[in-house]
Here is the input.
Amino acid sequence: MEKRMSPAKIRKLLEFIGGRLKQFVMDVALEDTEEGPALTITVASPFGDEEGISYTIMVEDTGEGLAMMQIMMTVFYEVPEERFDDVDDLITEINTRTTMGYFSLFEDAGLVLYNQSFLMDAGAATELAAALLSRCMIIMEASVKENGAWIDRLLKGEETPEEILSAMKERSESV
Here is the structure.
């Protein structure tokens, strides 16, 4: 019998995860979207932004005994249109150095997201799925702190794009 992850099971999983994380975060919300249930978790930003960082977590049944968990972190809000090209160039450079996940700029909304997804057994226990998600979020948070700092410096006008790219190159050569 093929294992499937029904929308009800996905909702139950996301409710479980939200309940487990509620005491550690700023906000937790579970809502139904066109793509299915979505859990949004907001945590404090390492860059001091009042909005915090929002994780949106969705699970999709692939129909092959696997489910794909997608995690999208909204890292920066309201990126000024005049910075789109510089931010996009910087994101391209960052993504060549990132081993897990990737940053993306959504120009329509002026958002910088950090995205990661992984496959899991559709019949996996809720506790196991929550543990996988927790570990993934820890890795994502570390990557955002390290790599998002370059974007933050650019958005705050602390350095020019050229200075940031030079500092990134210098740092990678010293590691």
User: Anything to note?
Assistant: The chain is about 40% helix and 30% strand. Residues 7-174 form a domain with the Yope Regulator; Chain: A, fold (CATH 3.30.1460.70).
